[in-house]
Every structure is written in C-alpha cells, then in structure tokens.
Amino acid sequence: MIPIKVDLIKKAKRPGYAMKPEYITIHQTGNTSKGANAEMHNRYVHNVAPNPSWHFTVDDKEAYQHLPLTENGWHAGDGTNGPGNRKSIAIEICVNRDGNLAKAEANAAWLAAKLIKEVGSLKPFPACMKQHYDWSGKNCPAQIRGRKDGWKNFLAAVEANLKTEAEITRPIGIYVDGKATAETGYLINNSTYVRAAYLIELTGGQVTGHGDYIDIVLPAKPGQAELEELRKKLKTAESDIAALQAALAAERQRIENAKRALG
Asked: What angle do CA 235, 236, 238 make, to 5 degrees?
C-alpha cells in the first residue's frame, strides 16, 4: 500500500469528456532520467495537459492522481473516440534510473487491483487490463513487455493483490528484540507474511528486484570475519612461541657450555 496524492489538473486543461471506465491501461513513462519520479511527472502533466494526459503516475514510493476517474485522458493513441482514450483509466509507471523499478511495478499492480475492487464499471479481471500497445501498437509498457512473460507476470501480480486483499485476516505488528518497528506484517489464512526485503536486511543481507523475480544476497556467515582474524592472530602467536622456544633453547645451551668451562 502506498499513498495516493490527489492533485487534479485544472478543469480548463483537462480533456473533459465524461467517462464510464471499462479498462485500465498500463503505460511506462520511458523517462529514465534521475528524478523522473511520480512527483516530477505530476508537474509535467499539469504543464502539458490536455494532450497528453492520464489518470495516475506511480513510482517506488507513491502515486499521484491527475484526473478524475469519471473523465477521460489523452494517452492511448487510438483517436478521439477510441476506447483506450475514452473508456480506460491510465496508469503511468516511472522508470527513472534512481528509482526501484520492481517496486514501482509492484505498486502499479497494487493500484490496479485497488481500482478493480472499487470501480464497478470496469470489465471483470483480466479483461479490464490493457497495455498501451493494445490500443495503438506502441511498444509500451516497454520494460514490462521487454521481459519474457513480463505482461503475464504483471497480471499475476495484480491477481495476487486481488486475492491477498480478500484473504487478509488482520495486520500484525513487528517487534525486533522486544521493540516495536514501523514495519507491518499480515496474517493471511493463519500464516504470517512480512516483506522479504525487511527480513533479509535485518540479517545484513540485501534484496534487489527485477520485476519477475527477486535476488537475495545473504550476509557472510555470522562470525566469519572474526574467525579469520583469530586464525591470523593464532598463526602470529604460534610463530612468536616458536621463536621464544628457540631463544630459550639457545640460552640453555649457553649456560650448559659455561658450566662445562668452569668445571
């Protein structure tokens, strides 16, 4: 779940056609520049509207809403009366290189599921879900389409959000060493779910995502560095002991030789 900041384009700059949405159209912005997040695209669409214009922009942290769901946007490239432009809610996913693309796509899947649950005029899932490509043939959403089974996996993420929301029993607090954290877990069908990234990072590991999978890098085994340091110190100590033993043996021999000379 992410915050949705409503900052609607002024009415005079909106396309302004009444809409009873039947579809959700997924786009990706194509803007990989640093800082090209949802907030920046919110400013952008306010400047360039009415053409292009769309309903939501989503990044890895938040979403902005630019148009009412009861009005159309110009985003699908299928003409003034095309169903993409006149009957679909448009979601743009940010692809800025300083953002987390996998998280942005996951947030878009969550938003799509939320809309499917709340907007009664949408066609049943998955018929309601469209790519920009479906309306105009444009290679968009490009990053999703560029991965093997990218669209299939995105739809699976939407479906998972639809099922998860229906099956959540209750949220649960997360405590670490007896102290409450800001993290939230969920009890779903008597099983506890917590973000993988949160749990792995607690151990010193790292999780990165690539849309279709996550890559978990586990930390070094506990005490491995300390053990290696101890081994080095042990070798040094063994060398020092050997030197002392040799010096002691030499001193004993010197004393023995002195006794013989005196005696």
From this structure: 65
Burial tier of 87 (Cβ tally within 10 Å: 0-12, 13-18, 19+)? buried
Q: How far is CA 36 from CA 107, 140, 152, 184, 209, in A?
A: 16, 17, 26, 28, 19
Residues 228-241 pLDDT 10s:
888 888 888 888 88
What is the longest distance spanned by two Cα atoms in the chain?
Answer: 123
Provide the 3-class DSSP secondary structure of residue 165: helix
By residue count, the chain amounts to 263
109: number of Cβ within 10 Å: 25
CB 2 within 8 A of CB 65: no
Q: What is the β-pairing status of strands 206-209 and 214-217?
A: antiparallel
Q: How does pLDDT run across 177-236, given as a tens digit for each residue?
A: 888 888 888 777 677 878 877 788 887 778 776 556 677 888 766 566 777 888 888 888
Cβ-contact 183, 174 below 8 angstroms:
yes
Are 184 and 174 within 8 A, CB to CB? yes
CA atoms within 13 A on the CB side of 247: 6
